[in-house]
Amino acid sequence: MNTPTQNFEQPTSFEFTPEVMDMAKAHIAKYPADRQASAVMPLLDLAQRQHDGWLPRAAMDYVADFLGMPRIEAYEVATFYTMYNLEPVGKHHVQVCTNLPCWLRGSDQIVEAAKRNLGVEMGETTDDGLFTLSSMECLGACVNAPMMQINDDYYEDLDETVTESILTELRHGQTPKTGSQIDRKSCEPIGGLTSLNSDAGGD
Amino acid sequence: MPKLTIDGVEVEVDAGLTVLQACEIAGREIPRFCYHERLSVAGNCRMCLVEMERAPKPIASCAMPVGDGMVITTDSETIRQARKGVMEFLLINHPLDCPICDQGGECDLQDQAMGYGYDRSRYAEEKRAVKDKNLGPLVSTVMTRCIHCTRCIRFATEIAGVPELGATGRGEHMEVGTYVEKTLSSELSGNIIDLCPVGALTSKPYSFNARPWELKKTESIDVMDALGANIRIDTRGAEVLRIVPRNNDDVNEEWISDKSRFACDGLRRQRLDQPFVRQDGKLQAVSWDEAFAAIAGKVKSTSGNKIAAIAGDQADCESMYALKKLMESLGSANMDCRQDGAAVGEGSRAGYLFNSTIAGIEDADAILIVGADPRLESPVLNARIRKRFLGGNVSIGVIGEETDLTYRYDYLGAGPDTLADVAAGSNSFAQVLKDASNPMIIVGSGVLTRADSAAVLGTARKLAEATGMIADGWNGFNVLHTAASRVGGLDLGFVPGEGGAGTNEILSGSMDVVYLLGADEIDMAALGGAFVVYQGHHGDAGAHRADVILPGAAYTEKNATYVNLEGRVQRTQLASFPVGEAKEDWAILRALSAELGQTLAFDSLAELRDRMTTATPSLGNIDDIAAAEWGGFGADGAMNNDAFASPIENFFMTDPISRASQTMAECTAARDNSTTARTGTHG
Prior knowledge:
The structure holds two protein chains of two kinds.
Chain A: H1 18-28, H2 40-50, H3 57-67, H4 71-80, E1 92-97, H5 100-104, H6 107-118, E2 131-136, E3 148-150, E4 153-156, H7 160-171, E5 179-180
Parallel strand pairs in A: 1-2, 4-5
Antiparallel strand pairs in A: 1-3, 3-4
Chain B: E1 3-6, E2 9-12, H1 19-25, E3 49-52, E4 59-60, E5 71-73, H2 77-92, H3 108-116, E6 139-141, H4 151-159, E7 166-168, E8 175-177, H5 191-195, E9 201-203, E10 216-221, E11 230-236, E12 239-245, H6 258-262, E13 276-279, E14 282-285, H7 288-300, E15 307-311, H8 317-329, E16 334-336, E17 366-370, H9 374-377, H10 379-391, E18 395-399, E19 410-413, H11 416-424, H12 428-435, E20 439-444, H13 445-448, H14 453-466, E21 470-471, E22 474-475, E23 477-480, H15 486-492, H16 503-506, E24 513-517, E25 531-536, H17 541-545, E26 548-551, E27 560-563, E28 569-572, H18 585-595, H19 605-615, H20 656-660, H21 662-675
Parallel strand pairs in B: 1-5, 15-16, 15-24, 17-18, 17-20, 18-19, 20-23, 24-25, 25-26
Antiparallel strand pairs in B: 1-2, 3-4, 3-5, 6-9, 7-8, 10-11, 11-12, 13-14, 13-26, 21-22, 27-28
Helix pairs in contact in B: 8-18, 11-14
């Protein structure tokens, strides 16, 4: 929505592959009959995954028709959530959180490092089609701020060097470490637990 | 019933109402933008804030159900502050371009900003701008003005039943529109113009034409279909600039169809503004006297049984009465108000009325639609059926064409054999009708023009009787007419007298003189060599065939009585005078009768109405429905098995006015563009 529009073509048709169709039916089965429209969000996601990470209009139409709901309602859902990409994105969609906690912890530097490494501005895709850089609102990992999400993986506790090395590794087809990039287990405090780390004593 | 105290006054209201409605009952005005009594509650504009005792902050009164013992304050310093705050937020992204906005002068935002807002803005930052949408030839958009009340979205989804509008994007990027550019596919789309509380959606044909305070407003009745929608005609000088609906809960609620609203530009085109006589094969402009003399010359040398009259779909009761009297005095019984040749009107009056009444649709719990496409034949009535459908617990069956009626229905079959099955009880829908407490059948006018229509009507009558549609306090038999003049004409008896010819015989070429009172939708070639007098307001098919043209008045230009499909008597009011030398229709007939030496026995409209209501008393009861006794109509006999078809091919062009309308032509083109596949040669 708020990214500069690039020139791209909308495909004229879309259809679930048989494997995706099975997954779609599994989602629909979770909801009562006549309420299959409830499955619109997972189905749009399936469509996006099948279609190189972005959701063309034909896919939204397909999903809406498939679920027997007005097409405009599928458009409303797809345009509301930033997780649905309505324009083509690179193979790696780099989504840097720039919301308040990450910003306080230095997300500006992370953005700068990403721009420097990729050579693109926010909302742009690299010429080789490998990376798209976007800024995101809170991705819910504030405890390990600053962070970014690349496709389905979170990379947390970032600094400029680590950000660049993650992107470089991805460019070379390697698999960088996901999660916290410093010595931290999940979202526990740095340097280990500070409470509840021994028996409470007594009985 | 819950009791509330509103500004110190105790009121008792029905349970289930909202606080806003209770405040209105208590006589307090609550400002609002998103709330509309005929739409679902959205609660997103926050303008209707009121204070409720023991609530920590102001509440949105439109979304709060009433409760017993509530204490509401609608006018306190807190509330004034809160409303000012809401108004300030609403105006942040509103352009304040009132001087160039068509809504200016009738704008809710303008009025409420005056009444409830600050007198200046503190907002110095940039405003957002939104790209305008193309919603087709009727609705003009300036989306930057939109305050996101979502009334148009709710109207399209709920009332019109075409879920095409939506809000895409989120937060500051939210936009109201169709997302994929398209013309709204509803016949009721013009109503979103009235619903829009700001100038985001305005009328495209009326754009930049006038300010509301320049207009003369005349309350009248629509004649584009048989519904008799209540309208207000806005004129400036002689020109009808726009038509808007009036509220009438029994008829059109507050909606009108796009044809009723936008065909009025047809009143300015193709008008007959002076009498014409055909001389040497060409129509020559003449004076009234010459035109009358030409008619008298022919009529006086013709015997009565060779003279015939057909009244068109927009003829009013007064002129039909006058024409009937004139024909009788000429010794002719050849007259018909059913220019489509419909075999309806013989037998009981209940056989041609919409007996359940329009509002009665809401009481029905099983509806069988036979050979009608109510969406095209009467869009507002169709919206009423949809309203009933949304209420739940109703079964709707359709025999005829399978089209999108904006509600779900059981498709039973295409033709008379299915109808016979239901009547005989061998179709499962017969049981549905029998089990219903208020079953109804709607017979479309497409059924009535068939050769076997008497048999079909007879079958429908038997079906109604067999499934319990006729009971004390409920009559479920309904005919859906498309012509505004039809019920009035039948009530007046503008039908063949004893031994007289009806439309079909008149059109067999056996008449020497045919008088067409606004009748254009007939096969002119079938009139043969007859001498044709056309009295009407538009140069349409009838005028092209005519030997003498008498310019009459359109429905906005006369005080006239019409009877709608349920039998409700309503009167139009003169909003502007007939163009040029044209006259009101009854007056033309009165003048002509004198020339023919058969002077009609009235000299004024009041005298005519006196006589008319003496002959047909029901016509005197304005806004009233004279209920019809159930009785025999229709006939036994074989039905041929051709599928039922609706008579309306192009909704936008069904009468001389809408055929002359440029706006309706644009609508037709837009519709054709969206329905035919685009080929490589397009653009």
